[in-house]
Design brief:
mainly alpha
């Protein structure tokens, strides 16, 4: 009878250990899901902030052009080049702030986290 009680106690301890392990695994999965949701919200918040300041960045980048009386262009494509230069300057400014606008927008539109893209490129 002592051995039967001992076996029952051992089984009970094993079942409790398995139950505890399953609970821990479920909690870990829940934490991972919560972390992923927070990361996606953070990426969306960063994108929103950048999009909100883009007009101000563009205004400041283009501000020196307001001091020009006239611009004479002698061949086709120069206006597109000028706009391209302004856009490149904007990209350089935002990259200097540590923000890759193209990557940020692409990640937001595709639903990928920015960190995933950074890890893939490394």
């Amino acid at each position: 009878m002592y051995e039967t009680q001992k076996e029952a106690d051992a089984r009970k301890a094993q079942v409790e250990a398995e139950k505890f392990a399953q609970l821990q695994e479920a909690e870990a999965k829940g934490l991972l899901q919560k972390a992923e949701a927070m990361k996606q919200m953070q990426d969306a918040a960063i994108t929103e902030m950048v999009v909100n300041v883009l007009p101000e960045i563009a205004k400041n980048v283009a501000a020196p052009l307001t001091n020009v009386d006239s611009i004479t262009m002698y061949s086709e494509g120069n206006s597109a080049k000028m706009v391209g230069d302004v856009m490149n300057t904007m990209s350089q400014v935002t990259e200097g702030m540590g923000i890759d606008i193209k990557e940020l927008i692409t990640a937001t539109l595709t639903g990928r986290a920015i960190a995933e893209n950074t890890e893939e490129q490394a």
